[in-house]
Amino acid sequence: MSLYLFVCLVLIIAPICTFIHELGHACGAKLVKADRIKINLGIGKRQWTSAMNNLELTWRSVYFIGGVTKTERERPYNNSEIIWITFFGPMFNGVAATVIYIILEVNTNGLLQLFFWFNVWMAVVNLIPFKFKGKQTDGFTIFRLISRK
Q1: Apex CA 111: angle with CA 108 and CA 116, to 5°?
Q2: Residue 132 near residue 99 (C-beta atoms within 8 A)
Q3: Which residues contact 46 (CB under 8 A, 6 or more apart)?
Q4: What residues does the Peptidase M50 domain cover (predicted)?
């Protein structure tokens, strides 16, 4: 991989794919009628925050390292609603990968290929149930909720 593609992966592609993933969780929360939805991209000092209706987006200084979506609702979520919210993140990455794959059939491009594979990676890895250093994947959350039933 060239240095150019690596820099694009870290500074552009990974944050966009993370945003797609977190947007998926936000859409899942909207679907089950969340009262408030907050998307945080990155870590570190807050650079800017934008809010519209019940959605708030915060961009942090080290924007290329992770993201998290938090949702709130007066009435507690039931297990199936939490599963939907959780599943929508990886699903959005899967849909993005599918769209990019179709584009790649017409226009092969190294940057698009990275974008495709990073979305595939985010969709697949987030559905594998595991927990590491206090953090858990979406798959772990879904598995835990399904196994409780």
Answers
A1: 80
A2: no
A3: 58, 59, 60, 61
A4: 15-104
What type of residue sits at position 9? L
Nearest C-alpha neighbor of 83 from the set 131, 23, 19, 149: 149
Q: Is the pTM of this model over 0.70?
A: yes
Q: What does the alpha-carbon distance between residue 92 and residue 21 come to, in Å, rounded to a whole number?
A: 6
Name residue, tokens 């609603």. Answer: 81
Length of the chain: 149
- Would you write out the chain's pLDDT as a tens digit for each of its 149 residues? 689 888 999 999 999 999 999 999 999 999 999 999 999 999 999 999 999 999 999 999 999 899 999 999 999 999 999 999 999 999 999 999 999 999 999 988 888 999 999 999 999 999 999 999 888 999 999 999 999 86
